[in-house]
Specification:
The chain is mostly helical. It is built from 23 helices and no strands. It is 66% helix and 0% strand. The longest helix has 26 residues. It is globular. It starts with a helix and ends in an 11-residue tail after the last helix.
């Protein structure tokens, strides 16, 4: 008899429970190391944002009558609570600072353990979505696997794909350094899971929570509504007028009202307690943010050139360059448009959200490395349905990382050597945009929804 090579391959893959234990131990070790490193080194392992979160939690916990007191209309009437926005550069929902209150009560690294736990939850959600909604509908994953062993193969395949997230250095480094992106990723994956389960009410509520936490997940509402309407097409075809009629259907309206209602209620509660500082720092600040510090986005150079001076003293074209609408229009056109069209074509929500998020990040006015987590989160869910040769995978990885490395090499000269390389850095930002756009195009061209994904030779 011929040896069952696929079964042997399955046996070499650790079970998902083992994977979770390994991932948890890795994160605990890194958090413990971060405490030692920060105590012995001038260059800290912990992200500066974590110190901002911790300070904001401390300000909430210890209010002062002068300077640190919640400024909402209801706060003075019922209770006294501090203002997290007393901490400069804290521009997040106050719920994040509340979650990190145990940093004062229990241990300064509590927040890091919380973020690491969210990493593990995200891995579990990825595994669950793969087992429930992706792999069972992806035919010919391994032609030599018998029906008897198909379930075991699915578990091994799902564990391997979940490992690409749980053991991703970018993921565990960001969470153990104290970035809160893991919490947002948990909300996003929960929304996706409920949407795939067709539990639309639950998906709408969690989507509203996600948008409250950080505004960008609101783009997923378009694809969710579009997918809801496509489920009721019943073979009647697709056209724009038909789409408009479906968008005002009962289920679509219910989804919009629930998600918008959740977002508004959470915002109203936070405004009632913390007032205008919450509204401005959490939302309004980002609509007119002019970050002239270098980042991957090529818009940084346009802002740098027009940063000084008021709008009244600038020419029309300079005002246009510094306007947030310069980036917002192409960004929202692509991210919302792809959600509307691909949702209607039943391309699969993980793929749609990946494309939406990728375009949103690529054309965002500000882009740093942690933003990449927003769309790489979906890659394990796409791999079973992407039909690309290994050469194209290597090329995509090389271009994705190479364009970043090219930019970082020039940014080092500016940041640490003080060289005047703004123009060269801007050119590399353009290369980054072109390179990442090419990667997105290759992935989109190789994606095959709901059909067999036979491997290329």
């Amino acid at each position: 008899m011929q040896p069952n090579t696929s079964a042997a391959w399955q046996d070499r893959i650790p079970g998902f429970g083992t994977l979770l234990v390994i991932s948890a131990v890795l994160r605990v070790v890194l958090i413990l190391y971060s405490e030692w490193h920060d105590a012995h080194s001038i260059v800290k392992y912990t992200d500066i944002d974590y110190r901002v979160f911790s300070d904001a939690a401390r300000f909430i916990l210890y209010p002062k009558p002068q300077g640190n007191i919640a400024k909402g209309p209801l706060a003075p009437l019922f209770f006294t609570v501090g203002d997290p926005y007393t901490r400069e550069t804290y521009r997040y929902t106050p719920l994040l600072a509340i979650l990190l209150l145990p940093n004062e009560w229990l241990h300064p690294s509590f927040g890091k353990y919380l973020f690491a736990a969210c990493d593990l939850i995200n891995g579990a959600l990825i595994y669950r979505i793969l087992m429930s909604h992706i792999l069972p509908h992806t035919k010919s994953l391994a032609p030599d696997v018998s029906a008897k062993n198909s379930k075991r193969f699915m578990r091994a395949h799902a564990s391997l794909l979940a490992a690409t997230h749980l053991l991703n250095p970018l993921v565990f480094t960001i969470s153990t350094r104290g970035s809160s992106e893991a919490i947002l990723c948990t909300f996003v994956l929960l929304t996706l899971f409920y949407a795939l389960e067709r539990r639309q009410n639950a998906a709408a509520v969690v989507l509203g929570l996600s948008a409250h936490w950080k505004i960008y997940p609101i783009i997923y509402g378009v694809s969710c509504v579009s997918a809801i309407t496509s489920q009721r097409v019943d073979g009647k075809g697709w056209n724009f007028s038909h789409l408009l009629r479906r968008l005002v259907g009962r289920e679509a309206i219910c989804f919009v009202l629930l998600s918008a209602g959740t977002f508004i209620i959470l915002g109203a509660i936070c405004y009632a307690v913390w007032g205008y500082p919450f509204l401005y720092e959490a939302y309004l600040y980002h609509t007119d943010r002019r970050d002239h510090r270098h980042n991957f986005s090529p818009y940084f150079y346009l802002i740098y050139l027009t940063y000084s001076g008021t709008s009244a003293n600038l020419s029309t074209w300079r005002q246009l360059l510094r306007s947030p609408f310069t980036s917002l229009i192409p960004q929202l056109t692509l991210s919302l448009g792809t959600g509307l069209v691909f949702g209607q074509l039943s391309a699969g929500l993980p793929f749609v959200w990946f494309v939406q998020t990728f375009t949103f990040v690529l054309f965002n006015r500000v882009c740093t490395s942690q933003y990449f987590i927003w769309y790489t989160l979906f890659i394990p869910l796409l791999v079973p349905r992407i039909n690309l040769s290994w050469k194209k995978w290597v090329m995509c990885g090389a271009v994705w990382m190479g364009t970043q490395a090219l930019w970082l090499a020039e940014a080092y000269k500016l940041e640490f050597l003080g060289d005047d390389v703004f123009l060269g850095l801007w050119v590399r930002s353009l290369v980054y945009v072109v390179g990442h756009a090419w990667v997105l195009g290759v992935i989109m061209s190789g994606y095959i929804p709901h059909v067999s994904c036979n491997q290329h030779s």
